[in-house]
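Q: Second attempt. The first request was missing the SMILES, so the protein and pyridoxal-5'-phosphate are both included now.
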Amino acid sequence: MEDLYREIIIDRYKNPQHRGHLDPHDIQFEDDNPLCGDHIEVTLRTDGDGRITEAAFDGKGCAISQASADLLMESVVGKSLEQVKSLGRQDLLDLLGIELGPVRLKCALLSLKVLKAGVYGLGESSDALVE
Amino acid sequence: MEDLYREIIIDRYKNPQHRGHLDPHDIQFEDDNPLCGDHIEVTLRTDGDGRITEAAFDGKGCAISQASADLLMESVVGKSLEQVKSLGRQDLLDLLGIELGPVRLKCALLSLKVLKAGVYGLGESSDALVE
Amino acid sequence: MALDVARLRSAFPILVREVRPGVPLVYLDSTATTQKPLSVLAAMDEFYRHSNANIHRGVHTLAEEATTLYEDARRKVAEFIHAPAARQVIFTRNASEAINLVAYSWGRANLASGDLVVLTEMEHHSNLVPWQMLSAERGVELDFIPVTADGLLDLDVYQALLTRTPRLVAFTHMSNVLGTINPLADMVRQAHAVGAVVLVDAAQSVPHLPVDVQALDADFLVFSAHKMLGPTGIGALYAKAGLLEAMPPFLGGGDMIKTVHLRTFVPNDPPHKFEAGTPAIAEAVGFAAAIDYLKAVGMESVAAHEREIVAYALERLEEVPGVRVFGPTAEHKGGVVAFTLEGIHPHDVAQILDRDGIAVRAGHHCAQPLHEKFGILATTRASFYLYNTKEEVDRLVEGIYQVKKLFG
Amino acid sequence: MALDVARLRSAFPILVREVRPGVPLVYLDSTATTQKPLSVLAAMDEFYRHSNANIHRGVHTLAEEATTLYEDARRKVAEFIHAPAARQVIFTRNASEAINLVAYSWGRANLASGDLVVLTEMEHHSNLVPWQMLSAERGVELDFIPVTADGLLDLDVYQALLTRTPRLVAFTHMSNVLGTINPLADMVRQAHAVGAVVLVDAAQSVPHLPVDVQALDADFLVFSAHKMLGPTGIGALYAKAGLLEAMPPFLGGGDMIKTVHLRTFVPNDPPHKFEAGTPAIAEAVGFAAAIDYLKAVGMESVAAHEREIVAYALERLEEVPGVRVFGPTAEHKGGVVAFTLEGIHPHDVAQILDRDGIAVRAGHHCAQPLHEKFGILATTRASFYLYNTKEEVDRLVEGIYQVKKLFG
Ligand SMILES: Cc1ncc(COP(=O)(O)O)c(C=O)c1O
Ligand SMILES: Cc1ncc(COP(=O)(O)O)c(C=O)c1O
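A: Got both inputs this time. The predicted holo structure:
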């Protein structure tokens, strides 16, 4: 808990590295967390081998959701879409380097949910994607 | 509690003094306790002054309900209908000479309920009559 | 493994109570509600002293602890009945509310005039009245599997009723009067074969027998915590995931929604869709502790112990002249013995037994049609659980002789 | 009489908890749920250790004790709100279920397509969704009393809505976000003048203010035990006797019936008609103990204490740059302060406050339409009860300065 607002989170929240909307893009998806209204859009560009070359997020919400999205975008550049499909909640928590209670976990996982729903080409995202 | 099955109750249950059905009668009413199926009918004869000259009960049920009815019938002979209207739960408990928990109280009060509903000439009896 | 009942009883503070000075309690009313071990009381007390907060929407430490405890409880309940996922368990007030939830939500969405619902003559009022209400509202037809003279379901009639392709079959796993344990797995398979949905009233089975909802293939299954060492105020509905997804909400309010506008709302996903308002949080914590306790004892051991006690009780009661026991022989029977004593009203029997500290129930036990079937208004019922002993059965039998003497 | 808060706090074991080593709890989330005094925990524990049994139909000593305790609790709840008779109080799981009971039972029997139900924009989801569900099912029309910029109900629009002769007016006595205490007695009188039935959501008023249902002339009034020092798992519906008599049952099952046959039943009299299955018995006992506690303190004193705390909180928060408080001035306000902090998400505010042990809530507080009205998604909410102190308000304000620094 002491670490919850680790410098990196506040820093990424204030100065995101991957905020934006890629146009054109190969993959796009967006969703929100109805609990608090956090909203995340993810856009990706991929190369011919299904490898992510660029990743961006846009949206609004709490520091946790926005910083998570920024760190996640950074981490997926260079990964294959197959690798993204196997990302789980622990991968994201490792990026953040903090522990989270059940409510804030939803904030943190929103970007991963959106990312995976986009990569899977689903019509809607679901909590099952990040369980 | 030790007194609950005072000799008089068992005795009245086994050898009721006022069991029967008066025919003809001036007042008749019957009802049952849905909780346990106890059933009581009361028939009364009155004189010109509205005074009870004869009282009988019929029915089936537990010792408490049947003994209560018998003791109650005995006690109302000679009373005016007005006096009967003012009988309350404590009067009946005094006749029985015991204390009763909430469930058995309903057994004990059934005859009083039936009696009062008959005397008031009501279409149905209600717990409010014995509160 | 035989239970060490003496040791086990020491965890139940009420069992050392004297009903009045010098008269120790003999509690033979566990079918109505069970007593609670210290671990259940401690879990709830500890919750209130340490982690009490409202759940789901709070980010502070207490709210997180409470949410985690509540959802852990759901997981424990789900595991206990071998549910595939925790989200298939809805917390309700009790088994009765769980059945009403199904009747209101699934029933009103899926049953129309003329549709058949098959019940049994041995149902508890809680598995009759909700369907009667639906029948009155919607013209749904009800029919009943009869109970035979020896207290079993008449399965030939069941077969015949199935040819009428009921939409729903709802029956008790174990009768709270006769003790009959119904051949559930077969009955469910046969119902599914004709396309019926199956609701199992497991209020008396989950507390007393190992129950596996997947092995049974039940569509809906309900039970109450207070009948399995847990607190009052909480019960559970298990349902197959697809059913819960498709069902409309039942109660509206906080927590069962995703979003709310003035005139419209979007329901939440199961299980939350069916839990409106602040739930029974401390009670869920107590429910989980009860399950921990039962798991530690082992449900096989619980069931074996009760089989032994009930066989002994049947044997001892048979010797008492004027006693008539209802229900099947020990092999089909859980730990419930309902009986009449010739010429003496069950209320009087129960009340006089109470003078000796023996707590049994008298009445129709919320199964009035079953009593009608047997041509009686009431029975006296003794019921057993893991904490009961053969000595207590002896006390019961002695008590019955006392009753006979008093009325003799 | 001023409360001796220091002494009173010693009865609440959780209030001496440290959220983590060296960080004591500052509990400012009583609008979500309140903490429990020892007397409430002891009453429930004692019930389970001494008198636990199922109620109403048992003749043994434990069942009689339990029945008496349960019905005594009903009497205490009735007296606390000055209800004419105990039988006018129905025990429910919570305020939400109580509203659903009215919507399902009274609503479906009395409201038809085109009938108007008037609500307000400040309602909790629990007083919105049940009516939305009824509206979707029956074509009942909903309209809303707007909330003004300063957090009050727009009573001019209320007058206009009344000219459309609504069948039901349902509003909160006190907003769980704005803290607004609505001018209930007048509003009820005006609704009755046009023949409307009135439901009062008293979930936030009964715990915090003296409430007299007869003086208010409310037709229905609902609240939850857990918001007034009592346990989770129990709430109450008060209703006028004639309404309860005429209403059809809601949930079917044990105890709510007089007689049951296979295809028909005769409902019991109120209150039992509306309590199906084993109720929250231990919780009723805890509810009664909570009421005893509140009565001993005195509701006037509780209200006065909260007025003092909230006035102080408003004064202190005003001085913090970037803080925007929602809701009316202190004179119209109960002990709730919802605010935003410029540029910082309420979730982050609440989470960072939690590092200092300060428990506040962040979100829409089950009043999403109200937040929409103010053009925001969420607020941070601090709420107060009889055990809170001005020092805790100071801790909150210091905490907010910390948040600002972190994000500065
Ligand atoms: C005004 C109001 N109404 C209704 C409720 C619902 O109460 P419960 O969750 O106990 O059903 C609440 C509780 O948050 C409330 O504040
Ligand atoms: C077979 C059966 N079904 C349902 C119920 C109802 O349980 P509850 O009162 O906890 O809702 C009972 C309890 O008596 C029961 O024995």
